[in-house]
Amino acid sequence: RSAIVAEAAAAEGPCRIGSAGARLLSGTRARANARLHLENKGKEARRKAVENASYLTALVVGMVGVTYASVPLYRMFCQATGYGGTTQRALTLEDKLKIEEEEPAEVAAAVAERELTVHFNADITSNMHWKFTPTQKKVRTTPGESTLAFYTVKNLSDKAVTGVSTYNVTPQKAGIYFNKIQCFCFEEQRLRPNEEIDMPVFFYIDREFATDPNMRDVSSLTLSYTFFKVSEEDHEEG
């Protein structure tokens, strides 16, 4: 009987060892698969992070580009359309003289009888520590007459500040007739601490203004400028 039991035990032993080894091998494979899964998830997460960073970088660069391009694009659009009472590009002196020579006598008579008052307004955005004022409150002119006016701006801060201005004319319908020969708008102005400068505006109103039926009720116009801050920096004496 003892021999029979011993033979049964000997036969059963290898089976038990084989089952334990299979379980160990299965557990090792499971851990390897889990580790591989985690590594793949980590790689995917890193790839998405790089893609998101690239998208954000492109977005920031694009926004900066649009910011720098917005002023000239806005200027081109407004000058082409007169949108918002924006003034138009001025003709050359030769073009003006040619038009005056060819215009009918009734136009010349209407121009001579039409006197206009141009008022001047100045504004700054809330984050600019500048003083910006028109040197004169108003001027009188007639259509076709070249007129010179000035604005004064002073930097009241202890830093060098760069600003840029936009403009418009009211009433809006008169903006298409307002032409600037010389102007400081859409050009960056850099002022040192406490620096003050005078800026000229040389303009005329088209002679066609005098014969346009839509302008019959307009006897005064307002030219407005608004300064925006572009940058600010500590000033170093050179």
Task: Please tell me about this protein's structure.
- This protein is an alpha+beta fold and about 240 residues long.
- It is built from three helices and ten strands.
- It has helices at about 1-80, 95-100, 105-115; strands spanning about 90, 115-125, 130-135, 140, 145-155, 160-170, 180, 190, 195-205, 220-235.
- It starts with a helix and ends in a 5-residue tail after the last strand.
Summarize the structure.
It is built from 3 helices and 10 strands; from the N terminus they run αβααβββββββββ. It has helices at residues 2-81, 93-102, 105-113; strands spanning 88-89, 116-124, 130-134, 138-141, 147-155, 160-170, 178-182, 189-191, 196-205, 220-233.
The strand order across the widest sheet is 1-7-9-5-3
Low-confidence stretches: 12-17, 64-86
Q: End-to-end distance, in Å?
A: 113 Å
The total of beta strands comes to 10
Give the helix proportion (percent range).
40-55%
Radius of gyration equals 39 Å
Question: What class do helices, strands and sheet pairing give?
Answer: alpha+beta
Mean pLDDT: 75
Largest sheet: 5 strands, mixed
Helix/strand layout:
Blueprint: H1 2-81, E1 88-89, H2 93-102, H3 105-113, E2 116-124, E3 130-134, E4 138-141, E5 147-155, E6 160-170, E7 178-182, E8 189-191, E9 196-205, E10 220-233
Parallel strand pairs: 1-7, 2-10
Antiparallel strand pairs: 2-4, 3-5, 5-9, 6-8, 6-10, 7-9
